[in-house]
TrEMBL record:
Family designation: Belongs to the NAD(P)-dependent epimerase/dehydratase family. dTDP-glucose dehydratase subfamily.
Entries under Gene3D superfamilies matching the protein: NAD(P)-binding Rossmann-like Domain (3.40.50.720), UDP-galactose 4-epimerase, domain 1 (3.90.25.10)
Enzyme class at the top of the EC tree: lyase
Keywords on record: Lyase, NAD
Keyword NAD attached: yes
Lineage: Bacteria, Pseudomonadati, Pseudomonadota, Gammaproteobacteria, Cellvibrionales
EC number(s) reported in the record: 4.2.1.46
Protein name as annotated: dTDP-glucose 4,6-dehydratase
Positions in coiled-coil regions: none
NAD(P)-binding domain: residues covered: 8-338
Cofactor: NAD(+)
PANTHER family: DTDP-D-GLUCOSE 4,6-DEHYDRATASE-RELATED
Catalytic activity: dTDP-alpha-D-glucose = dTDP-4-dehydro-6-deoxy-alpha-D-glucose + H2O
Any one GO MF annotation of this record: dTDP-glucose 4,6-dehydratase activity
Amino acid sequence: MTATRTLMVTGGAGFIGANFAHYWMTAHPEDTVIVYDALTYAGNRASLAALEPADNFHFIHADICDRERVVDCLKTHAVDTIVHFAAESHVDRSITGPDDFMRTNILGTHTLLEAARAVWLAGDGRPHRFHHVSTDEVYGSLAAGEAAFHEGHRYAPNSPYSASKAASDHLVRASHHTYGLQVTTSNCSNNYGPYHYPEKLIPLCLTNILRGRALPVYGDGSNIRDWLYVEDHCRGIDSVLESGRVGEVYNIGGNNEWNNLDIVRLLCDALDARFFADSQLAQRFPDAPAARGGAARDLVTFVPDRAGHDWRYAIDAGKAARELDYSPRETFESGIARTIDWYLDHTAWWQPLLQA
């Protein structure tokens, strides 16, 4: 790779992509970052507002399925690194409307790979990297006590979302082995942190508690997820780009399994404690249970389980630790505290999303 990079961050106005853009601009201020995003419902340009004035930051409003726009971006900005986040990612939406997932996650990834091949391999032959960001959901579901997902684990996707991501993983691998495209892939566990669209569990609970709304929990809440603070995920991708072997897959996880009901209760208790410690919160969020002398746990509402709901995910991140010297910096306690702080301090970011 060159001493400085020019990165094209697809889906960079989404949750993890926006956090990555912020992270990279801070960690590598000499590099250029181009965020390429179609601004679908989960893409929010407001997440990038602090970066927009920088001379080495650019935003392109375009679809990854538009090959001409992708090729133009790669050529015009002399991109040498693609970090591919762009994806439809909400499992519930994939169940009720799978077509968008097939288009974006499969066709979109194929379009990016073909554009990269045309510019980098058939074109000027520059040193390059195509990094594909995937999910632990491609591996399916684990039983209690079963060993965590490792990079060689059998693929067994159980939802249209995870099936579409599994297909994109295979396309990336094939582009390396067939054409020689310089690729890496990372499969991450559940992320949490700033700029998280409030349809996902943690931001949904935080914003619903502050508004006094019900906290829906699927089934009995026993489903288990491995949680990773989003900035730690960004650091993991940085490590892969810096030291990862071309053609390899690296699992990035938080070593932090929680069942959904315990997560919801933790958030309830943490917010109640914030209201107890800061009387001004009751004035800012008068509908929160704690503002009226109640308890957020009273908002917990059990709802019918969703179709194909995987029971447990867990990441074995040993390969990343051994080869990349990577490990998460945030504990779950510190990461949750930072997340709560962010949502309390950024109502102007999340409130318009709930009114849309």
